[in-house]
Amino acid sequence: MRTTGDYCQNNKTQQGQVxxxxxxxxxxYTLILEAIDMGIYKPGDRLVESDLAERxxxxxxxxxxxxxxxxxxxxxxxxxxxxxxxxxxHNQLAELYVVRAELEGLAANLxxxxxxxEEVRVLRDMVEEDRKLLNDPQAMARANRRFHKxxxxxSHNRFLVQQLDLVxxxxxxxxxxxLAALGRPADALKEHDAIVTAIEARDTTGAGxxxxxxxxxxxVTRLKLDSGEVGAIV
Length: 234
What we know:
Blueprint: E1 7-12, E2 18-22, H1 28-37, E3 46-47, H2 49-56, H3 60-72, E4 76-79, E5 82-85, H4 90-114, H5 117-130, H6 137-154, H7 158-171, H8 184-200, H9 204-227
Antiparallel strand pairs: 1-2, 3-5, 4-5
């Protein structure tokens, strides 16, 4: 049975009737990528064409093509004849955070320069709304991704956004979120607040520096979490 949630509203016809256009469905690549990003498939998990086709309700051909694409992007790796979700070793993790800090810092710098007043308002609203999520690390992680994505878009630089999308795809290969560390959600929210404050002030250097510092602290927290130096929210 079709529901209005499956459609997006189109313009009215000359007779005054409202027409609806079916929302585009996600392709197999996007479905698998989102499943990895949400932790449904974790590093080391084996991906089987038939299982994926059944889960997502698509044929095996687009699943096969999606898996090949994900392997090319190093999000999947071979284990004999099987494809498994890749994982990041310590050096890869460090390299990823270096690149992420530089690109995210540039995005914040450009957002302070180019973001519209409405985009800045959205960022501020996100910070305020996320205060409700401090005791839910998974919800906070999803909100964190939305916050960073909004900064990327507010940079108004399509090439930078494309590169950051690639970086964030690789972030999905991390088995846990740094926001699972005790005390980290509250600290991260304070850092988000400082980033937005700098963007509101159109302080390009301050915004870039604040976001770089935010990424650096997240990396330190992740290392401590992985080593067991800090505990996780349960």
